[in-house]
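#lab-general

N.A. 3:47 PM
ok so I finally got the sequence cleaned up, no stray characters, all 346 residues accounted for. can someone with queue access submit it? mine expired

B.Y. 3:52 PM
send it over

N.A. 3:53 PM
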Amino acid sequence: MIILISILVLGFLIFVHELGHFMVAKMVGIHVLEFSIGFGPKFLGFQKSEDTTMYSLRILPLGGFVRMAGMDPEEENDCANGFNAKPLKSRFAVLSAGSVMNFLTAILLFVITFGLIGEPAVSNTNVIGDVLSESPAMTAGLRAGDRIVSINQKPTRNWEEVAGSIRESRDNDLNLVVERQEQSLSFTVTPRYDSQYEIYQIGITQQILWQKQGFISAIKLGLIKAFEFAKLVLVGLVGLIGGTISTNEVAGPVGITVAIGEAAAGGAGYLMIFTAILGINLALINLLPIPALDGSRLVFLMIEGLKGKPVAPEKENFIHLIGFALLMVLFVLITYNDIARIFTGG
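B.Y. 4:20 PM
back already:
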């Protein structure tokens, strides 16, 4: 089920990205030969009688493409509706449209989530939001929704008092009295030291409340969150380039699949927000000046604009080929790290 949800989420984001390229290409009069989701052998395909564009679905759902006439730098430019025959601004618009579409879709997902489901906000109540697997709390029998009324006979009226009592106890046994479905139950829990945060914990999280927003508030909040997450992505990319963030912290297809599954387990709201964040990641990463990505093609167009003539086709193709090879190597390394994290519990 998790794999199916992941395919649908990633497929949706890829579809939106390629749809951006496709729509703008059609708007500026470029002949689109094929609109495809996925790579590899063709699985499904159809062509409208009045349209010469082939719409296809391919075996590997890890990408997509819009194949346009005249897009190969080595193709002749005498075709009036070919990519290379169009003005510089039109080509620039086509190449950047995929990322723009992803970003606009992310804003829309945020707005829909905040308006129909709500904005997630951490509650300060003494109610347990979730119990982490293999934690002392789960071993003791605590459940999500339990209200912790006291710890070691000391009343706990809010989450601050709950967390404070747990931290102060260190590794000593705790006697928790909780309310569950109008019943009063008692549990003994021994906190475990968390070396990452350097505190004692029992493995419970705060309750999350979803606060619905009005139409205007949802739009405003959606815009704010989209740009906030875009800033975080950019800071992360700068950290990777500068070496302050390890590549081990980067997730590939396997890691993303796991993360989508965790988001889906939290409900529709979490899944939609996570999809929006993935869309922002896809939008910005595609604009990086890395060969084989949209960003590198935009760089070549800017060079063409400055020089007044395009880069030699053989040079551009060579750079894209090297870039694609390096991306494949990076893809394999990140996937290996994803799998290693799963087996080591990282």
